[in-house]
Amino acid sequence: MTIDLQLDSRVLIQGVDNPLALAAIGRMQTYGTKIVGVVSAGKGGQQLGDLPVFDLVAQAQSVLGPIETSLIFVPAYQVLDAALEAIAAGIPQSIVIARGVPPLDMIRLLRQARITNTLILGSGSAGIIIPDRLLLGIYQPQLFSPGRVAIISRNQSLTAEIASELNQANLGQSIVIHIGSDPLVGSSCRLWLEWLQSDPLTESIVLVGDICWDSEAATAAYLLSQQGKPVVAYLAGIHASTPHPLTDAAIVLSHTLSKPIYHSDTIQQRLETYKRAKIPVAKKIGQIPHLIKKLVGRV
């Protein structure tokens, strides 16, 4: 997967049959995002405000021209078809907003994305925001302010809370990326960490993980092998008596009922890896601004 974020990206919306999509479209348009059209099967030929509606992605592209990004709002069980349609049309990146996409569907989607070098963000992603410059997704833009700290997150609600703490400490955000809350997601923390190393707007990085996802081990191992921009980590669930993913209620419930075998030494091993990589792990969200300032020499 290759990251190619453009501030003037032409954006297509797939699925508008829920209030979340309609509200997000309004916010993005107000923010200046170049939404060029909407795909909603059976509603082709209609208008959604000033946006034309098409039945198929290929029809939209033939009329509108090149499209760089697709935002997928369709229900979880329709995500695979919608995303494969976007890939077939040559759209280089898709953000999957829907949560709870069936795992086998995600496996099929990610296999095709790998073959076609398509960037997939999500599923269960709130999207991307570059404060005052670009909004792709469902974030509330008033919660973020421009700055030099990037946030890569697995947890939407914690992301907003961390941004608030950074704002109060006069540390704004260069970019905020929610890679998704579902167990299987497309682009990884590692991919975005690599991309941020060459981002001129980013001075330091806050990594918001979840101790229960296996990807946290890979992220920690990557950081151990690299010497890049300063990183502060916050791992949700690290102090829970019975660790479980801190995402939406459905995932928490299914994880709890499945009674997973979980070893406490796994948590300690990951913390030790961060320690060896000299990555401070904040015990509380309120500690993050101080740790960032310390790393960049502002304390």
UniProtKB/TrEMBL annotation:
- What keywords is this UniProt entry annotated with? Ligase, Nucleotide-binding
Q: Does the keyword Ubl conjugation apply?
A: no
UniProt-recorded Gene Ontology molecular function terms: nucleotide binding; succinate-CoA ligase (ADP-forming) activity; succinate-CoA ligase (GDP-forming) activity
- Look up the domain of life of the source: Bacteria
Q: Kindly give the InterPro entries that the UniProt entry links to this protein.
A: CoA-bd, CoA_lig_alpha, NAD(P)-bd_dom_sf, Succ_CoA_lig_flav_dom, Succinyl-CoA_synth-like
GO terms for cellular component: succinate-CoA ligase complex (ADP-forming)
Gene3D superfamilies membership: NAD(P)-binding Rossmann-like Domain (3.40.50.720), Succinyl-CoA synthetase domains (3.40.50.261)
Domain (CoA-binding) ranges: 4-101
Do you know which SMART domains this protein is assigned to?
CoA_binding
Task: Name the Pfam families for this protein.
Answer: CoA_binding (PF02629), Succ_CoA_lig (PF13607)
Q: A biological process (GO) annotation for this entry?
A: tricarboxylic acid cycle
Q: Which PANTHER family match?
A: SUCCINATE--COA LIGASE [ADP_GDP-FORMING] SUBUNIT ALPHA, MITOCHONDRIAL, SUCCINYL-COA LIGASE SUBUNIT ALPHA
Q: What is this protein called?
A: Succinyl-CoA synthetase, alpha subunit
